[in-house]
Design a protein that fits this description.
CATH topology of the largest domain: Protein Transport Mog1p, Chain A
Helix content: 40-55%
Largest sheet: 7 strands, antiparallel
Number of helices: 7
CATH architecture of the largest domain: 3-Layer(aba) Sandwich
CATH superfamily of the largest domain: TM1622-like
Strand order of the largest sheet: 1-2-3-4-7-6-5
Order of helices and strands: HHHHHEHEEEEEEH
Shape: elongated
Radius of gyration: 27 Å
Structural class: alpha+beta
């Protein structure tokens, strides 16, 4: 967040800017998620202060005396004059900020979907070919900056085909490929800081699921049925907890 704007946020919330500066900052908040988030932080702090002030309730007589003293200046009315537009702008700014966050998540999901498709279209989709988790898991040691557990697939419909190193946002992670009834499913595992949870549902024409566990983020995607995606996700989640 740039300094010229940051110094105006407090007076903006207090309604102390000129009409021209108010309009300029309103426009800026619509396009700057950082400033919008900072405004929201200031607003939450003000709300916390107000909540703390309500812990002690003054007597009716005390309220009457205070109201008599401040009646000629009527600052409450002036504050209310600014409250409505300020809150409206905050809601717009927060909506823009959350919208961009959702857009970034959708973009990341699309990138991983593209990686899933291009990998399966390759003549060598995996670097380590094995259905044995005790072969695939050790293969990643020293190649990625974390370790992970794989589920036991005996008595399930899933088959582990192998794995490879994947790269996302300049970070390295694990890309595992499973098969269920001729449908291939990709499982991406990255450090949580590099791949936040992306939600569960439809990603392009694929079903997907994602979650975080033990400092790692998991993203499962494929053209298999949603139930199959969820079953594989549950197996991976249980393995991660062990």
């Amino acid at each position: 967040m740039s300094d010229p704007w940051s110094v105006k946020l407090e007076p903006y919330l207090d309604g102390e800017l000129s009409p021209e500066d108010m309009r300029d900052l309103d426009s800026h908040l619509r396009t700057c998620p950082a400033c919008a988030a900072e405004v929201l932080r200031h607003l939450q702090m003000k709300r916390a202060v107000r909540a703390a002030g309500r812990q002690f309730s003054p007597s009716p007589e005390f309220k009457r005396r205070v109201q008599q003293q401040i009646a000629p200046r009527r600052p409450a009315a002036a504050a209310w004059r600014w409250a409505v537009p300020v809150l409206a702008v905050l809601l717009i700014a927060l909506s823009i900020y959350l919208g961009r966050q959702r857009s970034q998540a959708q973009h990341a999901s699309s990138e991983l979907a593209d990686l899933h498709v291009t990998t399966l279209a390759s003549t060598t989709p995996v670097d380590v070919v094995s259905s044995d988790r005790h072969t695939v898991k050790p293969w990643f040691q020293g190649k990625i900056p974390f370790t992970f557990n794989l589920p036991e697939l005996q008595n399930t419909e899933f088959t582990l085909l192998g794995g490879r190193i994947a790269y996302f946002n300049q970070a390295s992670g694990a890309h595992l490929i499973y098969q269920v009834r001729k449908h291939e499913i990709s499982v991406f595992i990255f450090p949580e800081r590099d791949l936040n949870a992306l939600g569960t549902g439809k990603t392009l024409s694929f079903n997907s699921a994602s979650w975080s566990e033990g400092g790692l983020s998991y993203f499962v995607i494929g053209d298999a049925a949603s139930d199959d995606i969820q079953k594989l996700a549950a197996l991976l989640q249980n393995a991660a907890k062990n």
